[in-house]
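Before the break, one more example. Copy the sequence into your notebook; we will annotate it together after we see the structure.
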Amino acid sequence: MLRVNLIKEKQTSLILGSIIFIFLIPSLIAQEAEIRVEHIGYGQTAQEPRFSIYNTGEVRITNVIISVDGKEYRTITGVSEPRIGFTTTLRLNPGEHLIEVRTPEGAYDSLTITISSAEEKSPITTEETVSTLQENLIWIIIGTLVIIVVMIVWLLMRKPKLEMEESQQPQYS
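Here is what the structure looks like once it is written out:
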């Protein structure tokens, strides 16, 4: 009787262990959605930062939601396959901003960026810059001509020297 109870207990524990294992398999196999956001530069002005958003996980992600300072800024609809990314540009006011990227699948990443309040000025070509470029161009042309003249003179002087060396050698009959 004791032996029968031991066998039943082993069978019961084996069945319970199998059931638990079967229910745990999906969570062991399931892969998480992962995303990464990086600041990669600026658009036409310093108030237009460009970001790359990568699906770094092994599952598809959909509908990427971009939030700025806790407020939803933009939703990019579509599907991103694993190991694929895209870029986007945001228009932000000067100051420090928290950029958050999330998906319905649970992927999340964030970064902090500071936008400068300084306005960008286009380079102005002054007369001084133009005259410096002209002076440099003149010196480049003069230098090139001097090198060419020196090469021609060297070649002309070398040719008679070679002829003299040939005439001074003894001739064998």
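Strands lie at 35-42, 49-55, 61-68, 71-80, 85-89, 95-102, 108-115. The chain has a mean pLDDT of 80. Try to locate both features in your own notes.
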